[in-house]
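Hey team,

Filing this mostly as a record. A colleague (T.K.) asked me to run one chain through the structure pipeline before their review meeting, and I want the input and output archived in the tracker in case anyone asks later how it was produced. No errors, nothing strange. Just documentation.

Input sequence:
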Amino acid sequence: MNCFANMATLCLASLLMLPLLCFSKAPSWGNDPTVFPDVTTEIQESTDSYSEKRIKTAVDSNILGLRSIYYKYLDRGLRFEGDVLLKFAITENGKVSNIDILSSTTGKSEFDEAIKNKVSDWKLETTRSDKVTSVTLLLKFAIIHSNSKCLILISSRPTNNIVRNIVNTRIKLRNIYVAFYKLKSGFSGKVILKYTVAEDGKITKIDIMASTTEYPEFDEAVKNNVATWKWIPEKNESYSGNTTIMSEFIF
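Output structure:
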């Protein structure tokens, strides 16, 4: 009986450790091409009570949801780009209604519907007007290719310093994953962060660009943890200027 109990315990421990083994595996720099989702927006028409500036602010605040949907499709191996043109109304209480897809060049009707449904859930800041605003919004979906798990946008540091610090950061995130895995066993996914490293090695700005974990609290914990780390310079070296990077973290 004890033998079977021990075997069951061992199997359970192995299952719990599997995501950690995948996460802690050293990244393959330069041999594992990565795609990053790029989503841009363009307000083609708006009427009545909502100014284009207010609409743009609302769109920007909801762009993470759209980018994450696109990222999930890319993560499934579906490589496509294109535009989706939406038309919808914003009611006096800030809700989106009467939303339609006017056109699409993605070739993925399921994806287009997912984007449409996501936009229909948006809630904008209300106005004092009782007028309904009509909006025509163009969403452009494109792929940014990279030869590694990170995309260096602006750099004042040598590549080896960037790689070393990112690898160290990945290792330090293991405990966060373990803690959240206990709360929601079985979850996994990828998180893309964009962050700026100052001359002194401190991270001055960080944003979640996309995620496939479907666990916002975990994503935020990852972001907050990465934001606290200070990048160590190479021996006898100093850097002038900021370094901005997008990194893919796999859990």
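Quick notes for T.K.: Confidence is low (pLDDT under 50) at residues 1-31. The two ends are 35 Å apart (CA to CA).
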